[in-house]
Amino acid sequence: MSIAKIASVKPNLDDPRYYFNRELSWLEFNRRVLKEALDPRTPLLERLKFLGIFSSNLDEFFMVRVAGLRQQVEAGVEKFTPDGRNPQMQLADIRSTLKPMVMEQHHHFDRVLRPELAEAGIHFLDYNQLNQEIKTYLQEYFEQHIFPVLTPLAVDPSHPFPYISNLSLNLAVIVRDEQDEIEHFARIKIPDMLPRFIKLPLDLQRKWGKKKVHWVGVPLEQIIAHNLESLFPGMSIQGWYAFRVTRNADLDVEEDEADDLMLAIEQELRKQRMSGSVVRLELAKDTAASVQSMLMRELNLTEQSIYTLEDTLGLHDLMGFLSLPLPELKDTPWSPKVPPRLRSSVDNLSSPQLNWEQNGDFLDQIRQGDLLVHHPYHSFTASVHRFVTQAAHDQAVLAIKMTLYRTSGDSPIICSLIEAAENGKQVVVLVELKARFDEANNINWARQLEQAGVHVVYGLTGLKTHTKTTLVVRQEEEGIRRYVHIGTGNYNPKTAGLYTDLGLFSCRDKLGADLTDLFNYLTGYSRQQSYRSLLVAPLNMRSRMLEMIRREITLVQQGEPGRIIAKMNALVDPELIQALYGASQAGVEIDLIIRGICCLRPGLKKISDKIRVISIIGRFLEHSRIFYFRNGGKNEIYIGSADWMPRNLNRRVEAIVPIEDPLLNQEMQDLLQLMLQDNRQAWELKPDGSYQRREVQENEPERSSQVILMHHCDRRAPLPRIYLQPPAPDQP
After folding, report:
1. Which CATH number fits domain 3-12+535-723: 3.40.50.1000, 3.90.190.20, 2.60.40.10, 3.30.870.10?
2. What is the rounded distance in angstroms from the CA atom of residue 575 to the CA atom of residue 649?
3. pLDDT in tens, 688-730
4. Among candidates 127, 153, 126, 164, which has minimal Cα distance to 283?
5. Which is the catalytic residue, given 375, 378, 385, 466?
6. What whole-number distance in Å separates Cα of residue 531 and Cα of residue 492?
7. Where in the chain are all domains bearing CATH 3.30.870.10?
8. Is 466 a catalytic residue?
9. CA angle, 527 as apex, 526 and 533 as ends, to 5°?
10. pTM of the model
């Protein structure tokens, strides 16, 4: 039935045709990432970066989402998603959708980007096009630096097929014994401790004979492949073929049965490294049929899991080229700014160990009123790190409590927490051991914190602690005062420079009391069900969001304008989608800014024709979550860590905080309006599930929300109104 006919029938909001598939919607998000690599307006090395991000995203997608679907198929699960697909149907649709995208990625790299990079002086060479002088150099390089590291593994009756590690690049080699003329199979793992692309020395680069030379190199696997005689003396090399595997990397920990959660996760990580089933096999396009058959048999795969590629495998390694010192081929460098309110009190932020006494009293700034920071436009070091550092050294601070979901390998936050414990403060850190792909890192941090005397807890059974919160308790003349930070992003200085996130600092009594109750809920025994200001999942967040959506419906029925704007990473939850459909049918104007997955189908007559969805893809990863409800002109705005997904609302501990300060509330309204007017990085979701990039119209200024925020984030004035179209009566 056509979309028009669907809309003419009395709507049953459980109808699968009103929902997009979660997995296919995610693939559309990754397609938008790929389009940044294909866009000639994107600087050349940034295009390489986006190609690498596209590949890395797919690796994680296969390791978790595709792996989960395969497990369901193998277990005979026939459960249907809201869009009406069972696991087998989803796997088939994933393959049919993804295969042309991957072909487009590799074709663009080989046929478009490589020539453009060569024109700019960056040359990816194939071994076959090298002259003898360069081949001689590479042979010597191979013998000195590569050969000692390699371990060829034979496969025969006395040598079983080897374990192929996750995301490893390998060569399948066919050799013939000159004595008995029998062909044999061997596997060589490309060492990941060596550079993926071997750069030629400067003198050979200059002899390459090109007008412009910045970097000239050859893929490591090609150097190995053309020197196989050294690895198989006395054998005749019949062929070599690159391949790469992706394994199931999702942990399966029975928390109820684990006496020691940290030990259980460590054991599961070790088991995973040795036994995760293969969910994808990437092959070079010219791989011999006999080799492909052998790999499929030994790895227990079907054709559905095979992806044949026409050139270089593992394009995620292209992200490394962003380190080349070629600023003309990159985005304009950006350095986060000190928030305006803090600027006069900060003298020097270059030292990794901030001296808060010299740089002013950060807590005093919070006492003067709520402070909102927006990363990466505002400095993480000058705000979040400074907050924790002062608390660690301020003699009046009695306790620090923090949730840690992800942090960096050299985290200054961890160092400050350790210093706080050493300074005699009560320090409590909730470390989420189940943060996917950061489990080992978090175990390491948990041990270091415990050794320093920090009280480390691991959250609640069956729930991931995803909230981003810090509570500082300080003894002051008037009595105990509590300072809080509640954010949308992790306490990670590296991602704070790449992801857009918001954070609220406050010493409001209600927020301090709420965070105290939340930490007691996380660390002790508590049946706390209500909070003064915070919306907390899985306790009251879903019900309060539904109430606020229904309130807009009621206001429209009473003759008031109804307005909802929600910015998040993903919208999947069927109950909230149906609530938005109901609001649209009632006449509530709804704008959604959703970076990734959106299972809601916008623009359907009499169902969702009041709902518009955009996705912003730019140099920074849009990660902040903002929720706006007009509320009869009272303009309620919340920020926090939760997307509208069942996992966030039902299976994670999340916290969302209201922005109550009138100036900050208006700032958030302006921010949302700016993003809604983006005509450079925004994509509009259509009723058929496709996304259309917005184009700058004739006589219209280009409005990239991220560029505008970079230009104006360090000024005391609000965003210039020239960038904001005058709002309609029902808009903020």
Report:
1. 3.30.870.10
2. 11
3. 999 999 999 888 899 999 999 998 875 555 565 544 443 343 4
4. 164
5. 466
6. 27
7. 3-12+535-723, 354-523
8. yes
9. 95
10. 0.91
